Amino acid sequence: MKKSVTIYINDKPYQVESGQTIMQAADKLGYHIPRLCYHPKLSIEGACRVCIVEVEGMKNYVASCAYPVAEGMRIRTHTKELRTARRDIVELILDNHPDDCHTCERDGICELQRLAYAMGLRHRHFEGEKKNYEKDLSSASVIRDPNKCILCGRCVRICSEVQKVNALGYAHRGFKTVVMPAYNMPFSESVCTTCGQCINVCPTASFVEKNYTQELFEKLQDPGYIKVAQIAPSVRAAIGEAFGLEPGRAMERETVAALRKLGFDYVFDTQLSADLTIMEEANEFLERVKNNGRLPMITSCSSAWMKCMEQFYPDLIENISTCKSPMSMMGALLKTYFADKIKKEPKKILSVAVMCCTAKKYEAARPELRVNGLPAVDIVVTTREIAWMFKSAGIDFVNIKGEDFDKPLGLSSGAGTIFGVTGGVMEAAIRTAYEIYTGEPLMEIEVNQIRGLQGIKEGKLDLNGTEIRVAVAHGLGNANALLNTVRQDPGRYHFVEIMGCPGGCIGGGGQPYAGSNSTPLDEECLKKRAEALYGLDRQKIIRRSHNNPDVRRLYKEFLGKPLGEVPHKLLHTHYKAKEPRGIVSQEMTLR
Amino acid sequence: MSTPMELIKQKRAEAINRIHSKGYLSTKRVYVGMATCEIAAGSKEVMEVFSQAMKNGLTDVYLSQKGCAGRCNLEPTVEVVEDGKIPVKYCKVTPEMAQLIVERHLKKGEVVKEWLIK
Amino acid sequence: MTRDFVITLCDGPSCMQKKSKELKEAVEKELEKHNLANRVRINISGCLGMCKNGPVVVINPLYTLYGQVTPADIPEIIQSHILKNKPLKRLAIEEDHLYNRFFRVFGDVNFFGKQMRITLRNCGIIDPESLDDYLSVRGYEALAKVLSGMAPQEVVSEVKKSGLRGRGGAGFPTGIKWELTAQQNSDEKFVICNADEGDPGAFMDRSTIEGDPHTVIEGMIIGGYAVGAKKGIIYIRAEYPLAVKRLQKGIAAAKAQGFLGENILGSGFSFDIEIRLGAGAFVCGEETALIHSIEGHRGMPRPRPPFPSVQGLFDKPTLINNVETWANIPVIIIDGAEWFSSIGTQKSKGTKVFALAGKINNTGLVEVPMGTTLKEIIYDIGGGIPNNKKFKAIQTGGPSGGCLSEEYLDTPIDYDSLAKAGSIMGSGGMIVIDEDSCMVNIAKFFLEFTQNESCGKCTPCREGTKRMLEILTRLTEGKGQEGDIEKLERLGNMIKKSSLCGLGQSAPNPVLSTIKNFRVEYEEHIRDKKCRAGACSAMAVYEVTDKCVGCGVCKRACPVKAISGAPKAMHEINQDKCVKCGLCFRNCKFDAIIKKG
After folding, report:
1. In CATH terms, is domain C351-434 a member of 3.40.50.620?
2. Residue C153 and residue C182 in contact, taking contact as beta carbons nearer than 8 Å
């Protein structure tokens, strides 16, 4: 039990637990002290100074995010002087920020804009020089615009603390301070894994995804293409938030309908190719178990994780499943099987992926994933982008009447649905692998030991007396911890699932921005999104990938056997170690 | 076993012996300022003149470096300490002046009064 | 003029009370009587730290201290010491304080004699690269004393009792820091020496290390013993290669003699010191930024609490003190807390080193007891302002300090008085400013430095100082606007109260203090577009006077063709075209062009 102390906020006494900060205590008491650099998931920065309060007896203001409460402490949260100081601080931030709100990507959903309004900033006193940097457009996924950066450091912290990638840091001093990759190299050449978490936590538009909406609008008007969309599982779990709906409301059939209204000829489900992934991956796993192949096998669906692996864990390449991601599998089918089926030239198929993810943009551009010389996926747009397109095209998404996916690539099992949540790929694989191995269906189909938002989860499975040990990590920081265990003790697990983003794809870098009443990556929100997908899974009659009739037909008509020749060519790939600039090579350390 | 205090006294006695054996008890002890500021003002060259003079047979002189005494605009400084006399403090010493200090003061005992710190 | 003898009379406050003036008269009378006036010089020193024996008289050569001297003793002293060359045993005091060795060599020079050297006691006296030299002046005796029977708590309480306060700038009581670190339960603790001296013009830390590296090392070992740390780190800027070299040499020598390493002097206590080089960021002098830098991160401060004493380097309890603070420790241990606390003022004990610079005759490092007035430093030690210029201000505390005007010259120098006057002690920079300097320009200079060196983390310091700098810049360019002073004050006060670390919290000081003390100069810049010191060149007006002979040199020199006039006739400057470059002014051989502020 923590000790309780008496504090006074604006002269009112309160009993609060000791050991917490002024801000934490005030939050619980209904005082929302304005803040900017603070993020509950990240370390305390104390940089923006917006959350300053007066504490009696202190010469200076204190940052309430960092200062602990103490017995008898007298705190004032909005005296006249304090309000002026806060207002001036926010003006100072704004004075060094472009005045382009109306043409900004985050107009209306920008934390700085909201804060400036709330602080009562109606005119300026201190305007002067503004920073002027080039935008970094080099990355396939993330645009970095230092001009909009207000140096709150959230991106730096999430990249180092949650993702442990450390692609971003501060450079230079004073007014010239700027957040950049090491040596100011282009983002594309840095260690950035393109996960997009910097976008999620950025209060302004200093980080945004590489936007393909204009290109897509144009191509949708082009009669020369058959326009095909695929939707990732977690898009439907979160897209409603972009339209003001409560988190956790699944909008599956609505999204299908809206995509058709936008101009797509076919709308398919990435969940079907997720089922396909399970067919290949479960068999690949069992092969490895039977033939003493390299274990643990590690999943390969998460694009950010794949780039991370190539850079930081090249020693584990042999452990990585050779399966392509569900998106790329679907893309490969579209440019082969589906093109044949509708008797069109593959290059006439416009393959568009609607993803919760920024890293998928990078994945789509990988040369090794091309199919017969064509990209498997032509355009990747995020949940945010497609939501904006719906709004821009005047589609009444909230009230739209839902529609079904198209055939032949629209039917999925519940196993494909839960791919979007951390632990879902593993759970789906277990559902199938168990049955293939034992010949019996798994009775307890919901594998609760690997569900939830715990950073690293472990589970055990009895395959007719063979114990299979599995582990799941989400977020690259947790992955780092788990993989270090794997490196030290390779025999500890048989099968490992890694997702690059916190919560899995539902917390992807392309998901809707947090609204005015929530914080980015809020755990409650992630839980609701996860529940949306688990709910969809529960509603389904078919909850095992191998029971998906469309998948069975696909093997029968086109693919042959899992791990067979056609799947090998279309559904599998290989990875190579990457050494981006900024990583000291082993050769160099030896020298 | 001896206490640290006993040990330090012993070590000090040894240290003083070593210093004495280097000629500390010579009539004249010459200290040349050798901190960064002094060196920047040219004290290395001044030191060189004195050590060269010693090599060339100047006797009864103990030569040592020292830190900065704190009188920046008068550097380089050189002290000549003689028992029973007020320590002599030369300022803004150049190699040429050092040569003359060797000739006049160290060899003939004649203090070059116009170069002293006032 | 050199004489054969120097008689030094202590003029410290305590001896003064005990009538040192009368002594001086007695000495003068006696010298006259023996016709010795041209062989003996009388020197008046600052406090010699022997107050309980005061009044004190020192005679050199045959360096002898005479204590409790009355005017009646003077004939006997002169008879014996000067006429017979035999120190008078009856009144001579036997003393072996650490601090006054410096005085033996330098005490007769006014600049040095007024000082009291504790931190710098060995600087300029011993060979800094010789451990033997350090040992010969009772080096490592304090360590031996501590290890020979003082419990760690006793060491802490001795430091507490001494009243020593942090010499790095903030003046936090050192003993409390030690106590807090000692109280922490931890498997590992660290001791850090902050030698990241970044104030422009301040070099007392460099000088201390270069002149006497072992005193810092010894202080740190004692600190390690007191708080229970086994590892010390000296964080020093890479721009100090000689200091680094002397530290390395010192550490190696101390290890070889068993003062560092395992089982120091057979006591069972082990301690080691490592050197880390800083890359010269000013902010790394801030303790949390310094710790980040040692850990391998970018040097950026973090909010406190937790304080380093609780959670410091690698999250372990860490005792971090500045070079000057460490150098005081051996003296406190040997000469005792009681003696140490007898020096200085009520709340600021001991001495402080200042780097005296700017428009002053004697520039250099001075160490004086706390409580010495600014006037004494500037005029008695510093020798006043050169070229008969008028004193205008003194800037103390480096770029984070403030500018004090003439009315503050009687301010005694201690942490609290300086803060009350609107400046700070800081690390001890002291820049004298004369009438030729513009206070707006001075404020701009310091703010430019802090803005450049701001780590960029917190908004007030990063953005706020930039805006203040912009306002100051336009003031010096003659583009000031009504309301600019108020904006400077508004921003300055907000930055002071809201910034994350000491850098930001003190960055506006030069501006706020110059506004407070020299507001009229700001107003002149704004309203009259005039710089009274003539330092803001953009506001200067150049005019041709009737001294002009029409030689045409200025006309040819002018890069914008603003000067016209027929040969041999008086020339004229077109003020609209003039860009105030000053070339005409500098090129005129007849002083016919004048510059107006």
Report:
1. no
2. yes
Q: Considering the domain boundaries, does residue B84 fall inside one?
A: yes
Question: Using CB atoms, which residue from C305, C460, C463 is nearest to A95?
Answer: C463
CATH 3.40.50.1780 is held by the domain A213-570: yes
Measured CA to CA, the distance from residue A150 to residue A96 in angstroms comes to: 8
* pTM > 0.80: yes
H/E stretch holding C278:
strand C272-278
| Distances from the Cα of A383 to the Cα of A158, A240, A243, A358, C473, angstroms | 21, 10, 11, 10, 48
Q: Which residues of B touch C (CB under 8 A)?
A: 1-5, 7-8, 11-12, 15-16, 18-19, 31, 33, 35-37, 39, 64-74, 77, 79, 81, 83-89, 111, 113, 116-118
Q: C138 vs B12: CB contact, 8 Å cut-off?
A: yes
Fold designation for C439-528: de novo design (two linked rop proteins) (1.20.1440)
CATH topology of domain A4-78: Ubiquitin-like (UB roll) (3.10.20)
Nearest to A336 by CA among A415, A228, A260: A228
C147 touching B (Cβ < 8 Å): yes
Report the distance separating Cα C568 and Cα C473, nearest Å: 40
Domain borders along chain C are 5-113, 131-338, 351-434, 439-528, 540-596
Contact flag C207-B70 (C-beta cutoff 8 Å): yes
ipTM, interface predicted TM-score of the complex: 0.96
- Six token digits for residue C389: 């210029």
Assigned CATH topology for domain A126-209: Alpha-Beta Plaits (3.30.70)
Tokens of A157: 């912290």
Query: Could A126 and C303 be called an inter-chain contact, meaning their C-beta atoms sit closer than 8 Å?
Result: no
Q: What is the CATH number of the domain that holds B73?
A: 3.40.30.10
**The domain C131-338 belongs to what CATH superfamily?**
NADH-ubiquinone oxidoreductase 51kDa subunit (3.40.50.11540)
Report how far residue A213's alpha carbon sits from residue C494's, in angstroms, rounded to the nearest whole number. 44
Q: Which residues pair with C393 in a beta bridge?
A: C405, C433
pLDDT in tens, chain C (597 residues): 456 788 888 887 777 777 777 888 899 999 999 988 888 888 888 777 777 788 888 888 778 889 889 899 999 999 999 888 888 888 888 766 776 678 878 888 888 888 889 999 999 999 999 999 999 999 999 999 999 999 999 999 999 999 999 998 889 999 999 999 999 999 999 999 999 998 888 899 999 999 999 999 999 999 999 999 999 999 999 999 999 999 999 999 999 999 999 999 999 999 999 999 998 899 999 999 999 999 999 999 999 999 999 999 999 999 999 999 999 999 999 999 999 998 999 999 999 999 999 999 999 999 999 999 999 999 989 999 999 999 999 999 988 899 999 999 999 999 999 989 888 888 889 999 999 999 999 999 999 999 999 999 999 999 999 999 999 999 999 999 999 999 999 999 999 999 999 999 999 999 999 999 999 999 999 999 999 988 888 888 899 999 999 999 999 999 999 999 999 999 999 999 998 888 999 899 999 998 876
